[in-house]
Design a protein that fits this description.
This protein is α+β, with helices and mostly antiparallel strands. It has four helices and 15 strands. It folds into two domains: 88 residues, Elongation Factor Tu (Ef-tu), domain 3 (Beta Barrel); 145 residues, Threonyl-tRNA Synthetase, Chain A, domain 2 (2-Layer Sandwich), CATH 3.30.980.10. Strand 2 and strand 3 form a beta hairpin.
Length: 242
């Protein structure tokens, strides 16, 4: 299966062929739909083929990380195996997820603590950090996040070998979830950094992101909650358009 969202996260639609169907689940030979993973929800959208249309309720991972399985809404008639079709994202939702996911990377760069959990949403998102109470301030974090957004840093996907990742364990910020390895390389996201300039954030990540931080727009840290002795939940949201 060709995962087109890895090649171009801005691709909104693609032609594809149905390779398998099982009740509400559909497999394609290539797809623009990102499957749920790494805290980012699966994509939604529409499939259209000669004689039919079906709404996509969710996208999940298959038996391997290289397979993306489309889940249709309840009661939808699936396309026949072998049918050519057009797959179209709910682009506004995906783009908001890309903006929010990139925001969480910026948040990681500003909070000195391991990540204990997180969730990306189209309107608000969260990261949980292993830090003491009072270690972060809502107004200060908001100001520093928006400074990084306004600086319009480039965001680039790359890879790191399994061996290099083992040799650089500090690249992995999550305490409970390790990036998938064993294939020889792991996908990474780097924000900023060129020539001798240091990067803003650099870590393994399989999600979708915007091309530059300026595309995020203004954000706000809306809440900081205590979720344990040293577990602080930081909630961030996209500001409404001016």
């Amino acid at each position: 299966m060709r995962l087109l969202f890895r090649e171009d996260p801005y691709l909104k639609t693609c032609a594809a062929m149905v390779t398998a169907v099982d009740a509400r689940r559909v497999w394609l030979d290539q797809t623009v739909f990102y499957p749920h993973g790494g805290g980012q929800p699966g994509d939604t959208g529409t499939l259209r083929w000669d004689g039919g249309t079906a709404r996509v309720a969710d996208t999940v991972k298959g038996d391997s990380h290289e397979i993306s399985v489309i889940v249709l809404v309840e009661g939808a008639a699936p396309p026949p195996v072998g049918a050519p079709l057009t797959a179209t994202l709910d682009w506004d939702r995906r783009h908001r997820l890309m903006r929010m996911h990139t925001t969480l990377h910026l948040l990681c760069s500003l909070v000195d603590g391991a990540v204990t959990g997180g969730q990306v949403g189209p309107d608000k998102s969260r990261l949980d950090f292993n830090i003491p109470s009072g270690a972060v301030d809502k107004a200060d974090l908001t100001e520093r996040l928006n400074r990084l957004v306004a600086e319009d840093h480039p965001v680039a996907a790359g890879t790191i070998t399994d061996e290099d990742l083992v040799a650089n364990p500090d690249l992995v910020r999550t305490m409970s979830v390790r990036p998938p390895s064993g294939a020889g390389s792991v996908r990474t996201i780097r924000i900023g950094g060129s020539g001798t300039a240091p990067y803003v954030d650099y870590q393994p990540c399989g999600g979708t992101h915007v091309a530059r931080t300026g595309e995020i727009g203004r954000v706000s840290v809306t809440k900081i909650e205590n979720k344990g002795k040293q577990n602080r939940r930081v909630v961030v949201a996209l500001d409404p358009p001016a």
